[in-house]
Amino acid sequence: MSLFGTLQTSSNTLQAMQIGLQVVSNNIANANTPGFIREKANFTPAPIQRLGSLNIGLGVMVDSITQVTDNFLADQLRNASSDRVSADIQNNAYKGLEQLLGELSDSDLSTALTEFFGSIEDTVNPTAGDAMSVRNLAVLEGSQLADEIRRIENRAKDLRDSYDTQITQSVGQINQLTEQIAKLNVQITQVEGGSAGKSDAGALRSTRQQAVNKLTELVSATVVEQPSGGLSIAVGGEFLVFEGQRRDVALETSGVAEEAQSQLIFVDTGKELDIRSGRIQGLSAARDVIVDGFRESLNDFAATMIHEFNLAYSQGQGLEGFKTLTSVENVDDASLALDAAGLAFAPKHGSFEIAVENGDAPVANSTIRINLREDGSELKSTLANIAAQINAVEGLNASVNSEGRLIIEGQSDEVSFTFAKDTSGFLASIGLNTFFTGSGSIDMSVNQELSGIRNADKLALSLDGPGGTTRNATALASLIDKPLDSLDGASITERYDQVVNELAQNSTVAGSVADGLGVFEATLANEFQAVSGVNIDEEAIEMISLQRIYQATARVISTIQEMLDTLVNL
Length: 570
Hints:
The protein is of the alpha+beta class. It is built from eleven helices and 20 strands. Among the domains are: 3-68 and 555-569, no CATH class; 71-311 and 472-532, no CATH class. It has helices at residues 3-29, 71-101, 109-122, 131-192, 202-218, 279-313, 383-391, 426-430, 471-478, 492-532, 536-569, and strands at 39-45, 49-51, 54-56, 60-67, 222-225, 231-235, 238-242, 245-246, 249-254, 261-266, 324-326, 350-358, 361-372, 374-375, 378-379, 396-400, 406-410, 415-420, 436-437, 445-446. The strands form eight sheets. A four-stranded antiparallel β-sheet has the order 5-6-7-8. Residues 142-194 form a coiled coil.
């Protein structure tokens, strides 16, 4: 090889080392850039030159500049991140509900429950001159219990709505990310010439990688790189992005408007996305399973509390009877059987008594039994029928108003009436002589008949007629620990403890799962960073190596220059 050939070989080497140093410099500059993947200059021997029987190398050349990455590890990391995001959201949902219950505070629901039944117990043997105040306190504690249950329900509903809003926002993010990825697919294919063997479009690929990571945090997806350099992304076997093409997604809602269930669908086909992890799956589980599950348990507890307490309470009488009374609940149609008339708590076959007084004296045949009949296993009594039976009682008028409520009133200002011995549950179902109103945690409240300073004298604590002993108060106070058939032998306290314990147990499990997935993701992230991240020490070593080669090559060129000068001067 001639001196000029050696000079050309050295020149090629200088150029290759300059490119290598530029790549190293770019890596160091982006050492703290989120999502940046380390690049590497791939050197290869230059084409040989044949000189006689000799094959002489022409130095080195840069074959390509590619990203240093492990695609399998990247897929594993994306999947782990998707699982961890979902688990974190569900764990936070449980923690939020635990804070909402506040069982470690002095103002939790169990405290309100205990104080309410304690106030009922205080009415059994009140101190002299204190009878009315303890009655008022019992009504107040009952109102505070109902307020606390409604507060928890409303806060849980707000939590559900926040998850619903986040799901809606995430759908827009999915469409934005898929559009960005599809555009980057086209740009990368154009820059790289459609061949994976050429140099990578490093900056574009890093940007796309960040977009893909954000997308797979939202929805679990399968990501496959095509030979052209573009990506195909599928969710549940249905492609979301394929190189330069993409599909829009939208939310489809079903159910009641305020409590709508929603699922993610492809706009073009209406098919639901099969999402098994990711932010949207976590939000959906937090909304539909965790929060709504808790609300259902709370509602069941409140419904049991309302109905069971009213069943016992409605057997009693206050200090005086009623002059007029309108049922709190209403039926859809007064001519329908009561178990099919839209009542939250349907009555059953049985009867109840109405006692009528005119002034201080009972009227003739004052205690009347009102019957609810059934035919076989079906209840046949209607509200119109019950009203007709009551209307036949001497001294009383009864009717059903246009709203489907039962109205009972004395025929004069001197007539009053009370209820007793209800074996049908009609009084509790229709809302006559009841303490609580509503059907669950959403609308639980205290009967307005008991509100006001003087209305507490209607508190039905007697079982011996108006102003009698407080035997009903004793029965009501013991209800908190009484085994109930509606709860399969459990008590109200045990039912509430079950709600709290289930929440605590599920929260503990969710926390452990989230922690485990977080550790697994961190491990994969460290492994990925070791492969694809920029290590300043390694880059410094590479830079020194390239520098030494550059300096040695420059020395070769200097030597050849001296030889050429000598040759010219001969």
